[in-house]
Design a protein that fits this description.
single chain, alpha+beta, D-Maltodextrin-Binding Protein, domain 2, Dipeptide-binding Protein, domain 1, Dipeptide-binding Protein, domain 3, 7-stranded mixed β-sheet, 6-stranded mixed β-sheet, 16 helices, about 30% helix, globular
Length: about 500
């Protein structure tokens, strides 16, 4: 399980100071993050939110939603001060908070809500719009959603970060500058306003003092893209950043050992797994369930957990987090390489086979590499293909990845939202599907009885397991380093949210 990056990490640790230091030139009132991927302008626009948590790192700062998770509340009224549902379940009416303005001074109105919904094209956009008959402006501060039929999941798909559909943008400004112009200079209604963005380098935001909930206590936020993990740790120890995201393995141990630094794990809605993209190709070995089962038994999940996550992650048998509503507790796949080899032989591959590539986000390429090592040990020969995050998200949405893919999601929601994005044939990240699962998903969407809907969703998850559609890996502990200047990092304040939030609650220590 030891890799070259581990040796390099050890060398870096040796040359770093053993005690974290406060930055000599740190700006007063500025909080700085070293983030683990390159920010892309698409993450600044709620309309393009994919079914993963990544864009919400920015959205919680720049923008605001009608309803969103907040500390202690999975659905807190934000731009909407209240909402109601008609007795027949066909009408949802939201009352907006009076006096709220976008960063350019335009008032937030029902017209902006309607515009934002109609403009939305991200995760589950088709599902949402297929259920909504009309969005009606009752008056400037009231908006009404009329559904075609009762749909109990409306607020799960609309009112949580399972999608970005409830995050509101200013209609007049977007129409003036266009979609591309909006990504270059986004205007929102969140606690921080846009200052500058240097692609691949940093995003700078400043406090919006008129934010309705409260004025932020930290004046300036700076997000630095630092893809290399050892560099993020070095910056944290030198005081060049206050929070460093995604520090794993030996480097996470170094944070634990360093006075002045704190290792802060988050998680909850996060699962990661391997997708067998070629299982719908009848000519591929992956079309044989025995081969997919062999791969599941070949992966030494606990060893990977220990090497990468210090043993803090939970090995899982499902792509759906155990904390989600309607989850079925899938049994774990035991690590059994001999059984894996027998299954391969039964499928006609006694000497294994060349399985092409396993694609992975650069940040999680070490996980994919270790999975690949496990597969090669039983004869399934794969090559690692690391990709930058925005590029792999785009390729995945466009169904351009091949062979195997290390997939992950920390998006909110429930079992239905996760299945919609990754399992059903029309899902944003689905490369194929199965008619029985698709039919059951449509059935549960129209079922008003909660217990019956739960039973259907459980059956879908049982079929996913029986078909060995995926190789589930972990509910990861997302490990982050926090520096000595931080009084409140925001990590863990919102249940199941991996990043710092809400940003207006962050605090620096008094000097």
């Amino acid at each position: 399980m030891k890799r070259a990056r581990g040796l390099f990490a050890a060398l870096v640790i040796l040359v770093l100071s053993t005690v974290a230091t406060a930055p000599a030139a740190a700006s007063e009132g500025q909080l700085t993050w070293a983030i683990h991927f390159s920010l892309a302008p698409t993450f600044f626009d709620p309309a393009e939110t994919p079914g993963i948590i990544t864009p919400f790192l920015v959205l919680y700062a720049l923008h605001d939603a009608l309803v969103k998770p907040m500390p202690g509340k999975p659905q807190a009224g934000s731009l909407a001060e209240s909402w109601s549902v008609s007795p027949d379940g066909l009408v949802y009416e939201f009352t907006l908070r009076p006096g709220v303005k976008f960063h350019n001074g335009d008032p937030v109105t029902a017209d902006d809500v309607k515009f934002s919904f109609e403009r939305y094209k991200g995760a589950a956009a088709t599902t949402l719009k297929n259920h909504v008959a009309a969005v009606e402006i009752v008056d400037p501060l009231r908006v009404r959603f009329r559904l075609k039929t009762p749909w109990p999941e409306f607020m799960t798909f609309y009112g949580t970060p399972a999608t970005g559909a409830a995050w509101i943008v200013p209609r007049k400004y977007v129409e003036k500058v266009g979609d591309d112009g909006f990504k270059k200079a986004p205007v929102g209604a969140g606690p921080y306003r846009f200052v500058s963005f240097t692609p691949g380098v940093e995003l700078v935001l400043e406090a919006y003092e008129q934010y309705w909930r409260k004025a932020p206590s930290v004046r300036r936020l700076v997000f630095k893209s630092v893809v290399d993990e050892t560099t993020r740790l070095a910056m944290l120890k030198r005081g060049e950043t206050d929070i460093a995201y995604s520090i794993r393995g030996e480097l996470a141990e170094e944070i634990r050992r360093t006075p002045g630094l704190a290792l802060k794990p988050t998680g909850g809605a996060f699962t990661e797994w391997v997708v067998f993209i070629d299982q719908w190709d009848p000519k591929s070995p992956w079309a044989d369930r025995r081969v997919r089962l062999a791969a599941n038994h070949a992966i030494d999940r606990q060893a990977i957990n220990q090497a990468e996550y210090l043993g803090l992650s939970k090995v899982t048998g499902s792509i759906i987090p155990v904390a989600f509503e309607f989850v079925w507790p899938a049994p774990l796949y035991p690590y059994d390489p001999q059984k894996a080899k027998r299954l391969l032989a039964e499928a006609g591959y006694p000497n294994g086979f060349d399985a092409g590539q396993i694609s992975a986000d650069l940040v999680y390429a070490p996980i994919a590499e270790l999975v690949g090592n496990s597969l090669r040990a039983v004869g399934i020969r794969v090559k690692l293909r690391p990709m930058e995050r925005a590029a792999i998200i785009k390729a995945n949405q466009e169904k351009k990845l091949k062979n195997l893919h290390r997939q992950g999601s920390a998006a909110f929601g429930n079992a239905a939202t996760r299945i919609e994005a990754f399992v059903v044939s029309e899902g944003m990240y689905a490369y194929g599907g199965y008619p029985d699962i698709d039919g059951l998903f449509r059935e549960q969407a129209a079922e008003p009885d909660r217990k019956k809907r739960e039973a259907i969703l459980h059956r879908i998850q049982q079929l996913m397991h029986e078909k060995a559609m995926f190789a589930p890996l972990f509910e990861p502990a997302f490990l982050n380093g926090v520096g000595p200047r931080v009084a409140e990092s925001g990590l863990g304040l919102i249940t199941n949210h991996g990043y710092s939030a809400p940003y207006e609650d962050l605090k620096l220590k008094a000097r």
